[in-house]
């Protein structure tokens, strides 16, 4: 009726309208129904956490009031996230590996599972700021507690580290002029420290604390290093800016109120 050329123009016109229509429906943070993820969560009254509860003190099973419950550091953080969004927290347990896929398939809304925000995963999901950094502590012999108080005092000292562990890199980079003594086993590092063959030992968080608890001649002078490459973040579906921002706000608040450290200590005690 209109001829070939006119048909083509009409067809292009229709495609054009459809494209504009779709683009209008799904902007950066919006969904097809025009609602942002955060709006949908608030409307449903709950946020669904996916986690793999095999990782104490971060998430693990424990009997609470006679009932098997998932508890831990990450769970406390997730509760605070839900609280700030004014919704309930629902926990879905699964194995660690499919967590990212479950997020992509809308089975869960967020992941807190001691998850390190590595580059590979960041292609598939978005990550919040880190809410937890691995920490490493300097342990010394109690006899030296007056001479080793700050990072400066470690200058040129002999530092014991586990061979091949991240602490070896950290000590090398952060303690100026340190002479490193890498040993294969941590208990050997402790022995060397107790017999004054090394001036200090650099060990990971909970492990350092547990050695100091069990060896009364050792102390933590409060010299600590953050593990900048490690650490944990909350994983979220991509293009979900408002939710990421809200969660980052919660994380900042918890840091400011000292709750991160508190929850970690509590979870640690609970897991023993
Ligand atoms: N941080 C490591 C990672 O992101 C291990 C986490 C394992 N978490 C767990 N709940 N099992 O790969």
From TrEMBL:
Tell me which Pfam families the record gives. SBP_bac_3
Boundaries of every Solute-binding protein family 3/N-terminal domain copy: 46-267
State where the protein is found.
Cell envelope
| Keywords recorded for this protein, A-Z | Signal
What SMART domains does this protein's entry cite? Answer: PBPb (SM00062)
Signal sequence, start to end: 1-23
Gene Ontology CC terms: cell envelope
The highest taxon in the source lineage is Bacteria
Provide the primary localization: other
Family membership noted in the UniProt record: Belongs to the bacterial solute-binding protein 3 family.
This protein is called Amino acid ABC transporter substrate-binding protein, PAAT family
* Annotated source species: Gottschalkia purinilytica (Clostridium purinilyticum)
